[in-house]
Design brief:
- The chain is α/β, with parallel strands linked by helices.
- The protein has three domains: about 55 residues, no CATH class; about 110 residues, 3-Layer(aba) Sandwich (Rossmann fold), CATH 3.40.50; about 190 residues, 3-Layer(aba) Sandwich (Rossmann fold), CATH 3.40.50.2000.
- The protein is built from 17 helices and 16 strands.
- The strands form four sheets. Strands 13-12-11-14-15-16 form a six-stranded parallel sheet, with helices on both faces.
- The N and C termini lie far apart (about 60 Å).
C-alpha cells in the first residue's frame, strides 16, 4: 500500500471519502461523463445516494480501498520532482479563493509542473479567471480512475478551514499556504486577482449605475448573516449620500429579493436587484468588477470583491473578520459590538455544532446585531471616495 498519511498537520485521511466504481452503462453525473465498465473515482456519498434511491443496479462493482492504495500524498520537499499535481477542494467558493497563494507558490517553485484542480463544475468559471493563473486544467468527480492514477501527487485541501489547528489564528490565505508548505516557503504570499470575461463586462456594463455600492446581505450560515435591521437603517442613508445600491444574491433568490425591496423600501429610488444577473460565478465576478464599492457579510462575495482591489466593508458577527479580509488594504472589517454572550469571538459557524450560548438559552445569536449605522457610515465616508 502507498503511504496514505495526509500531509496536513491534523488527523484526516482524504481517501475515506472516495471509492472506485464501474458502471454497467455510460452516464452523465453532474456534467461528468462516465464510460460503461471503466473504473471511475467516485465519492462514497454518491454510492450512498445510489443505495438510498435503489439504483445500485447501475453498478458493475465498487472497491472502497483501491483509491487509497493509489493515493500519492503531496510532499512539499518533493515538489521539484512532480510533473503533475492533482489538487482537490470541493468548495465553498471562498475557500477556493483562499487556496490561490498556495497554488501560485507551487507554480513559482516548479513552473513546469502541471496543476489540475478538482472541484465542482459550477466552480470552474471562477478558477479559470485567476490572473495570473497557476491552474493548468480543471476536473470534477466522478473522474476516470486512470486519470487519478496519472498524477505524481494528490493534494487535498478539504477540511483545512474547518479543522486545521491554526485556523483560528492565521488568515485563510496564509492558512492554506501553511497547510501545503508547512514552513518550507518563506516568500511573501501572492494574493488572488481575477481577469473577467470581456464579453460579459460589455454585456453587463449598461445595466450598472454609477457610484454603485454592491450589497450582499445573506450568508449560508445564520451565524454569519447580520440582522435585517442593519440594511433597513443603512440603505436609505447610502441613497441619501448619492450612492446607488445594488443587492446581489443567487438568481433563485431574485423574487424574494424583489419582495423585500418593494416591501421595505416602497418609495426609495436608486435600488437595484442584481440577483437575476448573477447566473454564474463568471457573471458574479463581472458584477464585482463593475461595481464601485461593496458591503457584505462573511461570505464568498466579499472575498471576491476584496480581490478586485476596490474599497469594501465586511460585516462580521462572531467570527474574526481579520482572518478573512486582513490581507487586503482596500478592505475594512467591522466587527459586531455585541458580546452579551461572553463567548466572543467564536467559530460555531465553521464546525457546525451550533453550541451558541444564546441559542442554548432558546434565543437567537445576538452577534448578528451590533452593527450601528453610524459606525458603518463612518467607514463609508473614510473608504468610499
Amino acid at each position: 500500500m502507498v503511504d496514505s498519511k495526509p500531509s496536513a498537520s491534523f488527523d484526516f485521511n482524504p481517501m475515506d471519502a472516495y471509492a472506485v466504481a464501474r458502471f454497467r452503462m455510460s452516464l452523465d453525473v453532474d456534467g461528468e461523463q462516465i464510460k460503461a465498465l471503466k473504473p471511475h473515482l467516485v465519492s462514497r456519498a454518491f454510492l450512498e445516494h445510489l443505495k438510498l434511491h435503489k439504483k445500485t443496479s447501475l453498478l458493475a462493482g465498487s472497491d472502497l480501498t483501491l483509491a487509497e492504495n493509489h493515493y500519492k500524498p503531496f510532499r512539499a520537499e518533493k515538489l521539484q520532482t512532480y510533473r503533475h499535481i492533482m489538487v482537490f477542494r470541493a468548495g465553498g467558493i471562498g475557500d477556493l479563493i483562499f487556496t490561490y497563494p498556495a497554488l501560485a507558490a507551487i507554480k513559482r517553485l516548479n513552473p513546469e509542473c502541471r496543476i489540475t484542480y478538482v472541484t465542482h463544475r459550477d466552480h470552474h468559471s471562477l478558477l479559470k479567471a485567476f490572473e495570473p493563473n497557476p491552474v493548468d486544467a480543471l476536473a470534477g468527480i466522478p473522474m476516470p480512475f486512470e486519470f487519478f492514477q496519472s498524477a505524481d501527487a494528490h493534494l487535498f485541501l478539504e477540511k483545512v478551514i474547518e479543522y486545521h489547528p491554526l485556523a483560528q489564528s492565521l488568515d485563510a490565505y496564509a492558512l492554506f499556504h501553511r497547510h501545503v508548505f508547512q514552513e518550507t516557503d518563506a516568500q511573501p504570499l501572492r494574493l488572488p486577482t481575477f481577469a473577467c470575461d470581456a464579453n460579459l463586462l460589455d454585456q453587463l456594463r449598461p445595466q450598472i449605475p454609477e457610484r454603485l455600492v454592491l450589497i450582499h446581505p445573506r450568508a449560508n450560515s445564520p451565524f454569519r448573516t447580520v440582522h435585517k435591521q442593519v440594511w433597513l437603517d443603512l440603505v436609505p442613508a447610502l441613497v441619501e449620500r448619492g450612492y446607488a445600491v445594488g443587492f446581489l444574491d443567487s438568481p433563485k433568490m431574485a423574487d424574494k429579493l424583489d419582495a423585500f425591496l418593494a416591501g421595505q423600501f416602497p418609495s426609495l429610488e436608486g435600488l437595484y436587484n442584481l440577483a437575476r444577473l448573477s447566473t454564474s460565478l463568471a457573471h458574479t465576478l463581472a458584477l464585482c468588477a463593475l461595481a464601485d464599492y461593496a458591503i457584505g457579510v462573511d461570505s464568498s462575495i466579499i472575498n471576491l470583491f476584496a480581490a478586485t482591489g476596490k474599497p469594501c466593508i465586511g460585516l462580521y458577527t462572531c467570527f474574526p473578520g481579520a482572518l478573512r479580509l486582513g490581507p487586503f488594504p482596500n478592505a475594512t472589517v467591522i466587527q459586531t459590538s455585541y458580546n452579551g454572550c461572553g463567548a466572543m469571538p467564536c467559530f460555531h459557524h465553521v464546525d457546525g455544532t451550533f453550541a451558541c450560548v444564546d441559542v442554548a438559552k432558546g434565543g437567537t445569536p445576538g452577534c448578528v446585531a451590533g452593527f450601528e449605522k453610524d459606525r458603518i457610515l463612518e467607514a463609508v465616508a473614510t473608504k468610499f471616495k
